[in-house]
Inverse folding.
């Protein structure tokens, strides 16, 4: 079984192209984005011994797969739901910077990806790969190889159709709202999954109406529009303010204990998003050679947020 997982690890990851093994695509029910993220996590798990944690920032995964941070964050959330305790994550410091760490159970993942192979150990499974570009721009007709070694041509129309079918298989990834951005990314897509999550996090807010207000604000203030990195914090800060107003009636009274737990979880989630955003800023500071004072200031902000997060976690345990 360990040898079979070694084969799977060799098939994972990316170099000059983005390769997504077919078993991952089948496991993710046709969602190529989720399958690509899973492939990268398996690939990076091969850099550590079995049972060891490895770290990978959302920004790094996004850069490797030509995705947005929001797409990576949503994909990991969905994979954790599907894999359960096969994929664990936690935030720890790596090189002095709080970064997401992962632990992947390779043997149990094999049971999910290749259930037929476990019943016959004499069969060596070598899953086929399909090259799936993550971005449609500037890609002519693509060519890949099938299992017989013959070249087959995949047109961009076929790729678009495959992507559309994948979105239909995962309705929660359908984009239902867009907010204008400044920078290279012109718009930020909001999926049904995002909408559902925010409605549960902010029960006293009409999330759909507030999103319309955000779009109106962005259109009326083009010079103050947010970037791809800052739009997530902007949305959650806006919704958090509306939630604190508490003008919308709550349909059913809940015990105080449950309300306190929900509020603590919401604060922890917002802090984790702030840490992720500040972590990206810190990495940019170091790469661009900013002054030591600027780097030290960013590190202090991160440490302060991590201390606050730890305090909230301790309060949550008490409840």
């Amino acid at each position: 079984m360990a040898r079979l997982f070694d084969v799977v690890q060799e098939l994972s990851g990316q170099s000059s192209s983005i390769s997504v093994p077919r078993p991952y695509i089948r496991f993710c029910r046709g969602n190529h984005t989720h399958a690509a993220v899973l492939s990268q996590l398996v690939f990076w798990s091969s850099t550590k011994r079995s049972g060891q944690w490895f770290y990978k920032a959302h920004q790094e995964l996004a850069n490797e797969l030509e995705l947005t941070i929001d797409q990576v964050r949503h994909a990991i959330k969905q994979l954790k739901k599907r894999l359960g305790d096969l994929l664990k994550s936690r935030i720890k410091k790596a090189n002095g910077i709080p970064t997401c760490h992962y632990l992947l159970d390779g043997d149990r993942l094999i049971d999910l990806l290749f259930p037929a192979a476990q019943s016959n150990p004499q069969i060596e499974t070598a899953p086929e790969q399909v090259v799936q570009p993550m971005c449609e721009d500037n890609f002519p007709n693509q060519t890949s190889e099938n299992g017989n070694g013959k070249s087959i041509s995949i047109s961009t129309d076929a790729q678009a159709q495959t992507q559309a079918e994948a979105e239909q298989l995962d309705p929660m990834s359908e984009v239902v709202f867009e907010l204008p951005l400044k920078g290279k990314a012109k718009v930020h897509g909001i999926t049904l999954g995002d909408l559902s999550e925010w409605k549960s996090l902010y029960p006293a807010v009409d999330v759909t109406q507030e999103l319309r207000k955000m779009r109106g604000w962005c259109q009326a203030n083009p010079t103050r529009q947010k970037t791809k990195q800052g739009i997530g914090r902007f949305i959650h800060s806006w919704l958090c303010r509306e939630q604190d107003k508490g003008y919308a009636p709550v349909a059913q009274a809940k015990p105080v204990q449950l309300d306190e737990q929900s509020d603590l979880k919401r604060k922890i989630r917002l802090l984790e998003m702030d840490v992720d955003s500040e972590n990206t800023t810190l990495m940019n500071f170091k790469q661009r050679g900013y002054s030591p004072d600027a780097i030290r200031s960013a590190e202090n902000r991160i440490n302060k947020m991590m201390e606050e997060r730890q305090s909230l976690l301790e309060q949550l345990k008490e409840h």
Notes: Residues 2-169 form a domain with the Arc Repressor Mutant, subunit A fold (CATH 1.10.10.10). The beta strands are 19-21, 54-55, 87-94, 97-104, 129-131, 142-145, 151-154, 175-180, 187-191.
